[in-house]
Amino acid sequence: MSTAKRPVNLDLSSIQFPLPALVSISHRVSGILLFIGLIFLMWAFQVSLSSPAGFDTVREAMAHGFFAKLVLWGLLSALGFHLVAGVRHLVMDMGHGETLEGGQRGSQLTIIISALLVIMAGVWVW
């Protein structure tokens, strides 16, 4: 049995996470948001297919509803980030960017590309 001193109660809010860790955690969060957002999208799809009036309701909400546009923009933003961060993970799984410097650069590139995709999604939706 080891008698090494280990932290008993680790306070995660006091730890400064490096950028690659934050990008990895955000990748998981965006996946959860996409999963939850699919409920909204499936509901809107079901309503739009239920009748011509339902289709008009969904179309009107997407054309003029602030909340619907905000949700759509959020889901597209989460999808863009999740896609870029997923590609980053796949590239790292192939052995590229596994060093500390490579992980940092890959995370920076992920944030830059994702920010561009978020802006493009916002322009497209609004």
From TrEMBL:
Q: Which GO terms describe its cellular component?
A: plasma membrane
Alphabetized InterPro entries for the sequence: SQR/QFR_C/D (IPR034804), Succ_DH_cyt_bsu_CS (IPR018495), Succ_DH_cytb556 (IPR014314), SuccDH_FuR_B_TM-su (IPR000701)
What molecular function does GO assign, one term?
Answer: electron transfer activity
- Gene Ontology BP term (one): tricarboxylic acid cycle
Q: How does it sit in the membrane?
A: Multi-pass membrane protein
Sorted keywords for this record are:
Heme, Iron, Membrane, Metal-binding, Transmembrane, Transmembrane helix
What cofactors does the UniProt entry give for this protein? heme
Binding-site positions, heme: 82
Q: Which Pfam families match?
A: Sdh_cyt
Q: Where in the cell is it found?
A: Membrane
| Recorded superkingdom | Bacteria
Write out the transmembrane intervals.
21-46, 66-85, 106-125
Give the cofactor binding note: The heme is bound between the two transmembrane subunits.
Q: What does this protein do?
A: Membrane-anchoring subunit of succinate dehydrogenase (SDH).
Q: Which family does it belong to?
A: Belongs to the cytochrome b560 family.
Describe its assembly. Part of an enzyme complex containing four subunits: a flavoprotein, an iron-sulfur protein, plus two membrane-anchoring proteins, SdhC and SdhD. The complex can form homotrimers.
Q: What is this protein called?
A: Succinate dehydrogenase cytochrome b556 subunit
Q: What is the lineage of its organism?
A: Bacteria, Pseudomonadati, Pseudomonadota, Gammaproteobacteria, Oceanospirillales
